[in-house]
Structures are given as C-alpha cells and as structure tokens.
Amino acid sequence: MADDRPAAHAPGSFDPVPLNVRTADLPIRLASAGMMLAVLLLALWLGGQALDTFIYLVALIGFVEFMLLVFKATPRFTVRLPAVIAGAFYFGCAASIMAGAGTFLLVLVIGVTVATDTGAYFVGRAIGGPKIAPSISPSKTWAGLVGGMVASAAWVFAWVFAIDAPLDDWLGPRFELGLKMSAQNLVGAVFVGAGLAVVAQVGDFFESWLKRRAGVKDSSRLIPGHGGIFDRIDGLIPVAIVAGLVATQMVV
C-alpha cells in the first residue's frame, strides 16, 4: 500500500523518506495494525450480517476519502462528477463481491493483498533496483513487484491446496475442490495468485497517483500511523473485483 510523503521543496512533489523517519512511528503503526487485525478477525468470526455491515462500512469510508481526494485533485465539476460516479461503482462493486463471497474467496482476497504488500516490501528493500514509476510511487521497484507476485502465488497455492485436501489426505493422490479445481489446476492457482498481485499493485499505483494529484500523503488521518481506510484497501478493491469475476467463471 502506498506510503508517499510530500517533499518540502515543491508542493505536490514527493521524494523517498529516510528509513529512520519512516520507522519513527513504528510503535503506533504496530498498535494500529493489531487493532485493525482484531476488528477484522472479530467481523470474520461473527459472520453474517455483522460481517456484511463491516464490509460496507469500510467501503463507504474509503469512498468518502476517495471523493475528498478527487475534490482536492481538481476544481472542475465536469471531472469531479464522472470521477465520483466511477468511484461509487468501483467501491460498490468490490463491497458487493466481498459481502457476497464465501469464506474461501474472502480469505483468499485478503490474503493476496497482504501477501503482495509483504512480499513487495521485503524483496524491494532487500534488492532495490529500478523503480517502476518513480514519479508516482518512488518506493516501488520491479524487484518488489516480483516479490509480491511470488508471495501472492504461494499464498493462493497454499490456500487452495489446504482447502482442497483434508488434513488426512494431503499426501494422497486426490485433490478435488468445490470450485472444480483438480491437482493439475493448482498450477493455475499459482498464475492466478501472481496475476492478482499485479492487480493489487495497479490499485496501489492508482491511489498514489490520485494522492499526488491532490498533493497529500494520505487519504485521511483516520488510522494513527497508517493514514486512511483507502490507504489500507487500495490494492484490495481491484483484487476483490477481479477475483470475484474469476470465481464466477470457475463455478459456471
């Protein structure tokens, strides 16, 4: 997820921030992350109407933050109106898919987003190298993208494999999943995971681009150390939409 900071020498311009500055608020970030994880796990445990309400509430807050970014990015009503309409469809479609998804797809989408961010962060930090689009997100590298793709592919493979094969059958020859996936199709799961990682990064870049147009670092200050809700779900939104479409094709 995006972590962009404005440079002091030019409004709307961003430069990479030294590591000691980025990690200064680490305790706050960890505490906020723990709280967000606890709320998410509670919503998943409650399920049903409580989970759906949580999903739609998160989407609504993210959409409001999106609108505020659009309003800051342009004063033109002819741009704002279609952007807000498109944003309503974007957030609403993702929320509907997540609310209607079963546990398998819901956990898969969340896992892909987390795995992509984690893999991209650690591999990007370890290897560095050429930037993908430094004018939009100066910290994103091609190495990080590959790391995110590998992590996401590994997650999807592991999740499909775990759901597909009961504990007492993991070493056996039979792998049948309710989504009509067989043993050979687990290879397809790897490619799906890698592709969804690219989708997550596209969502991340989209929000980074919008924040640069608006001249802000975060979509809001709602979450201490993490910015806004949109900052946390920028990659999850397109992943949910694409994964929902893929899942629909698989069960048809």
How does this structure look, described?
This protein is mainly α. It has helices at residues 19-22, 26-46, 48-73, 77-100, 103-127, 142-164, 186-214, 229-233, 236-251. It has one domain (19-251). Helix 3 packs across helix 7 (186-214), helix 6 (142-164) packs across helix 7 and helix 7 (186-214) runs antiparallel to helix 9 (236-251). 33% of the residues are buried.
Write a brief structural summary.
This protein has one domain.
Features:
252 residues, globular, mainly alpha, 9 helices
Write the layout of secondary structure elements.
Layout: H1 19-22, H2 26-46, H3 48-73, H4 77-100, H5 103-127, H6 142-164, H7 186-214, H8 229-233, H9 236-251
Helix pairs in contact: 2-3, 3-4, 3-7, 4-9, 5-6, 5-7, 5-9, 6-7, 7-9
